[in-house]
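Appendix B: a complete holo record

For completeness, this appendix reproduces one full record from the ligand-bound portion of the collection. The bound molecule is magnesium ion. The inputs are the chain sequence and the ligand SMILES; the output is the full three-dimensional arrangement of the complex, encoded as structure tokens. No fields have been trimmed.
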Amino acid sequence: MQHAAPDGSRQETPLLAVSYHQPSDQVEGGRGAIFVDRDGVLNRFGNMKKAEDLDRLLQPNAVESLLRLMSHTKMPVYVVTNQQRAAKDDRTLSQVEASLDRLCQLVVENGGKFAGVLFCPSRSQDPVPKGMVSGHKPNAGMFLEAARLDSLDLSQSYMVGDSVKDMLAAKQAHPEMTTLLVATGHGGRDESQPHPPEASVACIGEAADWIIGRESGRT
Ligand SMILES: [Mg+2]
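The structure of the chain with magnesium ion bound, as generated:
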């Protein structure tokens, strides 16, 4: 599998993988985006050996909340998810990709579309060559790759996550990115040192309400 380096070159290093990406001509450059973590935010934790396992684990309001974000804000929505188990073998990688494809399919079936879905198969302990940025959150690689592909303004962007790693990664990508921490999943308890978000919300549905409220106040 090929991986994208921050300088745009393609190489065989497990730093950052873009598993799925819509053509960038669908995204208007120079604007903010909404980044959403998957596990713990859109779905409960659990084994996803088959694509359909995602359906069983999805939060009941996940797809509806994503669709509201897409239709009300008109901002591009990206999934950014650490999936270090994908580095284990090709079979596991296929399982990760199938579960992400299933998520995309559910969104499309309900009239929405992700601007992109990015996952990182590298682990926190993997060495990072000089000059490269790891995609493994709390590193900023996935955000920087989306911004590079679609000319996004990260300062005007949002990150919805359930872990401290999500909050840190967003701020590493841009200190002015607005972070929202949901109480589902890790609920911000994955690290001993908390990192206060701009907003603490109960779930993805409340995160969508918060972002939609903020964006409607801008116009
Ligand atoms: Mg998570």
